[in-house]
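Comment on the following before class.
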Amino acid sequence: MNTNPLHSLASVTASVTTSLTACLLALACLTACDRKELFEHQELYAATVSIRPDWQSQSPTASALQIRIRGTHPATDFSPAISTDTTFTLAASGAAAASAEAAANATATAAASAANAALPEALLTLPEASYSLIAWHEASGLTFDGTRFRLSTLPDGTLAEPAPLCAAAITFCAIAGQENRPPLKMQPHTRLLKLTLNISQGTPELLTDVTATLTGCAATREIRGGEKLTRGEDCELMKAEACELTKAEGDKLTRTAETGDVGSIRPVFTRNGNTLSATHRLLGIAPAVRQQLTLTLHYAEGELQTQVYDLTSFLSGFNRFSPDTADEVFTLTGDLQLQQSLESPGISGTITGWTPGTETDLEAGNK
């Protein structure tokens, strides 16, 4: 039987073409599948996070916040690890900021409501992961290095008085496919101390002035930890390596604010009748050292009398304040008794009955 060579060649060519086409289609399908898997991974692990500060019941201390968010989504078969470290400003509009400031002069509750409404909501798209977030604002007399506030030092070596300050540090899980609204509760990090001397005995006119130095004050304040914002089972919805928030870590994520370096302040006394008082804002009392008040009494005849009082036990509760008591002033009041002897020249004074307490900042002069 005779075979047509041209017919055979055409058959072979058609077969090769068919095989090649099949291979190309399979390769295209495989490539499409890979792209589809990558696309689905990116979509699946993208979490929407809403950030809005909550001043709680306290007066707002700023109309603009700096916010830093850090976290890492682990590598997978379809995607490399994705690290996030971003800082941005969350600021109120001019009108909203003015509204919050006006409310601050009314009541703390109205101020907090106005501030919460004034600051806009930040909407972020983040890879699913566990994140740390720090929120803070600029305040005179202070610098911030990312975890710690530090007071400036005055030319005489004493600590500057800080402006009111609130900040927050939290850890949260951003989980794809659900609403993520970590409550960013702003915590107070300064408090007013008011020292009062009531002249309870002697002739008040004998005393012309009082100067003072208080040691054992915190020069720094650290922000670390935060609130546990998600339950352990929520994080179990994600791969363990994507959101590592163990029970031990969750237990320690309560508000902490430790004081470190120590310094001294010079509270300035003013007089109203038989009462002398000095109000000074502090980052806190350093718990590891003693608080000693050195008072110099200036008398009308030009004499000076210097005395040192250990106030450690009386100031032990100074650092225990919260948003609910942020507008309360820690007070320490003593009775000043002046003595002038007829037998011997000179005047002397003694302070007794030191008593701690609290009052509102409005009562303390709203310094």
Remarks:
- The first strand starts at residue 46 and ends at 51.
- The chain has two domains: 44-190+221-261, 263-360.
